[in-house]
Design a protein that fits this description.
Domain 4Fe-4S ferredoxin-type: 210-239, 417-446, 448-477
Protein name: 4Fe-4S binding protein
Organism: Spiribacter pallidus
Number of helices: 20
Number of domains: 5
Shape: flat
Keywords: 4Fe-4S, Iron, Iron-sulfur, Metal-binding
Radius of gyration: 30 Å
InterPro entries: 4Fe4S_Fe-S-bd, 4Fe4S_Fe_S_CS, Fe-S_Ferredoxin
Length: 555
Amino acid sequence: MLEIQHQPLESLKAKAADPRGAALGALASANMGTAGFVEYRSAGTVLIHGPVARALPAARALGEEMRCLLVAEDDGDQPADLRQYLLARGRPRLNGYLGAYEAWLDTDEGPRSLAELVGGGLKAFDLVLDLADAPLMTMQKPPLGYFAVGGDEASLAEALAQLPAMVGEFQKPRFFAYDENICAHGARGMTGCTRCMDACATDAIRSLGEKVEVDPYLCQGCGSCAAACPSGAMGYAFPHARDLLGGLRRALRAYGDAGGQAPALLFHDDEWGSEVLEAFAERLPERLIPVPVEDVGSIGPDIWLSALAMGVSDVVVLLPDAVEGVLAETARTQKALFDPVLEALQLDSDRVRLVSGQAALAVWLDASPLHDDHGRRAGNFSIAGGKRERLQIAFSELYRPNRDAATTELPAGAPFGQIQVDRDACTLCMACAAVCPVEAVTSGGGEPKLLFDESRCVQCGLCEQACPEDAITLEARLHLPAFAMPQTRVLNEEAPFHCVSCGKAFATEKMIGRVAEQLAGHWMFQDERARRRLEMCEDCRVKDLFDEEGNSLGQ
């Protein structure tokens, strides 16, 4: 297990005797785990793409240290040394990552691999310097080793300084952990939840039909996929949520033991956020504890609510100035979805705050923003289990029974709610139970019953799509008693229909009546024996068919 030693702000280290200093000391000594590592190997072969006037000087600048190959997107001038670098002309297609970039040119004979044009056994390019006005890769957070600088001279100078350092063997954490068994992405050809793919700034997540796949080489640890995932199938692993919450619990205990009251947390990126907060150190409220993490995009609702349940008065997430658009949008979406959840728990929605950038931080600090929670009880509860379990425990800890506020309507897209079943239309075929990824909808075993556990439902919509009778509708809501005391309830039940031959219950009376009605005009069911076969279980139906065929052959 990797030990991640996030260091407290330099200006606050010396204050270890005060409550916040004690908390920061506990955080700095916490051991955080990861799901493993991803390795890259780069030999320093650089593919440079763009107009000759930009690309050739860049190749000359790097040529003494690295192997540069140029794909010119124009005819340009023909300097004497152009042939030394020129590989092809045109606009290639590109994919890959550090040490494994593949590029093709579309020709009259079909796509040609640029690596094969180089020859010498080259299979891929290690690095890409893209000087074109329209970049070859358009994801919001491009892969490691890809530099899209266009015509910006400052960005080019920075890239030329970084490229030589990207030769050798490199290692980064495997940021995610994926449990396909509770993934609500799809089932039986239907698509349900796509939140992780929608939230990914690196295009690292793709659909495999019923499940998804994450390319660990493209993933850069944004964490928004884990924050947006309703079931917990996609989790953050640098660190795991249980390790982060364990570290927070020890820090809060140290804070309380040192005499601190009403602690508040401010999550920030370890690099950008630490630099910004150093400048604001003297303005930070004494009870505001900075918590450095790899990426604040990973700090989602389960962490917010668990921290509040631990007795924290406020949770602040500081987003970087240059945060990718999809990551900021994911954070805002989760906040909007959970504002009514906080209100249902009789907590002000601004107990969780998103602060976007340095300027917004200054405004927020001037507003004296923290809630006065002196004497508020800190919960002592398990932090084991997955995301839904953490949310359920947090609800149980924070919920104060109030009959008027037991149920709260939530906006569409919220990961909590119930399903409504039209009992007149439902035939209890159990197609909904067959596709439910989290076992919120289940069958009654040997009885014709449809059961539902609201605490498990993630509102993915697969049950609604699977119902052949259009008998199911979704209702996003938060019914807190369902989480305080999880239990199944009956959505529909029917009298069983017993096989007319052996007496075994195998369907419902409504289902048999519906099938008989639909097949009434079919030529195969015009005689009485064939119609009676519809009222038999599968075993007796097969037996009766063989008996009828045997009698026909014997006549």
